[in-house]
Write a structure and sequence with these properties.
alpha+beta
């Protein structure tokens, strides 16, 4: 019994000493896997542009004038075999919330969720969003070509990550650029301590620290604002 007590004491001591370091290593791993998802999504968006001459619209508009399909659905053919199989079952002639299309909600490709947010997987909610509004890369209802990105592909954010937005992955809804504060840790980010992952139009991922001002974040999301913000690759 004494040796068992000694062993558990040693384990407890090691946890106190090494626990924060192990937690930090895990956090970095989750952040990098999340960045990998964003890079994969950016590659798919680029492949869509190569095929259609523009980025996918943030959402397509149906004959009823309402948003019907998300950019996340439109890039499925460029995300690998399994994602393409989901796309083949999706009916673009019906809205996203039709009975046929809602059956596919549970078939969400894992690339749409941050590994740091297990609740997103359980709820079939996405972690990755476009910011939709005037001057943004993924416009609502219409595509934007890379030629219109005058700020430079390395200075224009395509997608951001958000925790707990409550938006299903097929839902044609993203972040309304007129309704958010562009504050990391408030309405952006939330999956990783100290900042958030983004991916720019050149396919590079970056970790924006919480010290980035809302003005800097907004500047990075516009395609032709003429601003320049220093970025480090993740």
């Amino acid at each position: 019994m004494a040796s068992f007590a000694l062993c558990t004491s040693i384990i407890a001591l090691l946890y106190l000493v090494l626990g924060p370091a192990v937690g930090s290593v895990k956090a970095v791993g989750l952040r990098r896997r999340c960045a990998g998802n964003l890079a994969q999504l950016a590659l798919a968006i680029d492949a869509y542009e190569q095929a259609y001459g523009s980025y996918p619209p943030a959402f397509t508009v149906g004959p009823d004038g309402k948003p019907w399909h998300s950019w996340r659905v439109l890039i499925l053919p460029y995300l690998g075999t399994q994602a393409n199989q989901v796309y083949q079952q999706y009916d673009l002639s019906q809205p996203w919330n039709s009975q046929q299309n809602l059956r596919l909600v549970g078939s969400m490709p894992t690339v749409f969720t941050s590994p740091a947010d297990p609740d997103a997987v359980a709820l079939n909610e996405t972690s990755y969003f476009a910011v939709v509004g005037p001057g943004m890369a993924l416009a609502g209802g219409g595509g934007t070509s890379s030629a219109r990105i005058r700020d430079g592909a390395d200075q224009t954010v395509l997608l951001v990550e958000v925790r707990g937005a409550g938006i299903g992955w097929t839902e044609p809804r993203d972040l309304d650029g007129r309704a958010i504060t562009y504050t990391i840790g408030t309405d952006l980010g939330g999956n990783h301590p100290g900042g958030m992952n983004v991916v720019t139009a050149d396919g590079q991922t970056h970790f924006l620290p919480e010290t980035c001002s809302p003005e800097e974040v907004h500047a990075l999301l516009t395609v032709a604002g003429g601003e320049s913000v220093s970025l480090a690759e993740d």
